[in-house]
Amino acid sequence: MPPPPFQSADLNDAAADLLRKTAERSLIVGVIGLGYVGLPVVVAFGSRRVRVIGFDVDAEKIRQLNEGRSYIRQIASAVIAAQTTDGRFHATDDFARLTECDAIIICVPTPLTRHREPDLQYIEGTGRTLSRHLRRGQLVVLESTTYPGTTQDVLIPILGESGLRCGTDFWVGFSPEREDPGNQQYSLGTMPKVIGADDPIALEAMAQLYGLIVPRVVPLSSSRTAEAVKLTENIFRSVNIALVNELKLVYTAMNIDVWEVIDAAATKPFGYMPFYPGPGLGGHCIPIDPFYLTWKAREYEITPKFIELAGEINTAMPDHVVDVTVKSLSLRRRKGVTGANILVVGVAYKKNVEDVRESPALKIMTRLVALGAHIAYIDPFVPYLPRTRSFPTLSGLASIANDADFSIYDTAIICTDHDAFDYNLLVQTCPLVIDTRNAIARAGVQGENVVKA
Ligand SMILES: NC(=O)c1ccc[n+]([C@@H]2O[C@H](COP(=O)([O-])OP(=O)(O)OC[C@H]3O[C@@H](n4cnc5c(N)ncnc54)[C@H](O)[C@@H]3O)[C@@H](O)[C@H]2O)c1
Predict the structure, then answer these.
(1) How is the chain split into domains, by residue range?
(2) Looking at the domain that runs over 238-452, which CATH code has it been given?
(3) Is 8-221's fold the same as 238-452's?
């Protein structure tokens, strides 16, 4: 239940000004953090002819954007160029310009620390920067995924260091982001948007703001509830993926094809939703977000077992793929893994995207290198592997050419089922193919040399 609607009589001059500017679309929107989440937000407001200032600490990203170049595949450079050329959008690292903005949307990273605990340094740092430039009449919305209570207990107190008062001088809320890179069907502009705030004026301002770019807003009773919605959506995925990963192990032992089972179960028109097994979780969300809740739950002396168990099962999947590879090399090719030439097919964390953050392919490659294998990879979206904190030894490794000869490898491991791959050619030329995505069967190809993992 959202809080009771605001009363116009409760509006002070600053609130009335904010709502008027939003209604007239004369507001300026500031977006802090121009990554996979922030850039689509910029583009969405720009396409509704709202002026946007984008803030980032990465000078190279700012330069590219102001030159009209996009670094995210699903956003065309032409779209960015159109918005920068006519002045609708400008990117900057001059945070003093936050003062110019009426609504400020925070889309900075929320990773885990080395000890797998929430790392709020980006939210806190942004809050401190913002508090130095905050002025009366501004709306601040946090979109970064985080545990319930972050907006109320962390962000608002930091913003209060400005000397201004939340709910009187400025307003704050939380709205989770549902961005799904590579999804052709749904995008920010076609999905309902959840909004949560702890006072009715903030909620009204958010409803008007996001009403400009989404088909429907879903107002909630508090910022904590909205924070919980995002975690629930991602925990739902993590737990269900773990379930099918576990079923894969059980059914494989029984010589039953788990993908055939899932496709058949999905014909039930109610009460079932298909999730698919794979080499392990990847990306910036599903492997990370659930642990924001488990960490917070400890404060309430609760250990959410489902979430921990799902994490355990999903984390073990890359090792399972390595096990299957080692056994298959031995049984089918009479070869040990040490010295074997292994090709990893697809290193992005999911199909048709270029993002390798937390990708299980990197874990599998690192494990195989440790066992003495010679590793190469092919991925048309990832020409070379960027530096990552967890897999520094792989950084700089380049993809083999698209038309390379697969026959020189002892085995290939399909980690990502990009549409661009020629699965038929792979099966025809590579002596052994380990398939973690059921990509070969989905492509309508068959081969005695294919092992599902
Ligand atoms: N990627 C997704 O699909 C997705 C989906 C839903 C939610 N989220 C959440 O959205 C948030 C952002 O994720 P992302 O994928 O866009 O991350 P990202 O790494 O792609 O982008 C974050 C951007 O913030 C910038 N940045 C870092 N510190 C900053 C600072 N102090 N001030 C200004 N800019 C700063 C970085 O340079 C980068 O450009 C995270 O909380 C994430 O969990 C991501």
Answers:
(1) 8-221, 238-452
(2) 3.40.50.720
(3) yes
By CB neighbour count within 10 A (0-12 exposed, 13-18 middle, 19+ buried), where does 252 fall?
Answer: middle
Please state the atom number of ligand 1 nearest to the C-alpha of residue 38.
16
For residue 425, the model assigns a pLDDT of: 96
- Exposure of 244 in the CB half-sphere (CA atoms within 13 A): 27
CATH number of 8-221: 3.40.50.720
C-alpha distances out from residue 435 to 21, 203, 325, 426, Å: 54, 48, 10, 11
> 79 CA distance to ligand 1 centroid (A)?
20
Distance 33 CA to ligand 1 centre (A): 6
* CA of residue 105 to ligand 1 center, whole Å: 12
Grade residue 7 by pLDDT with cuts at 50, 70 and 90: confident
User: What is the predicted pLDDT for the residue at 3?
Assistant: 66
Active site residue 107: no
What predicted TM-score, i.e. pTM, was given to this entire model? Answer: 0.94
pLDDT in tens, 220-264: 999 999 999 999 999 999 999 999 999 999 999 999 999 999 999
> Average pLDDT over the chain, rounded to whole?
96
Residues with CB under 6 Å of ligand 1 are 32-38, 55-58, 61, 107-110, 122, 125-126, 144-145, 177, 179, 181, 284-285
Q: Quote the DSSP letter at residue 99.
A: G
> Nearest residue CA, atom 44 of ligand 1?
37
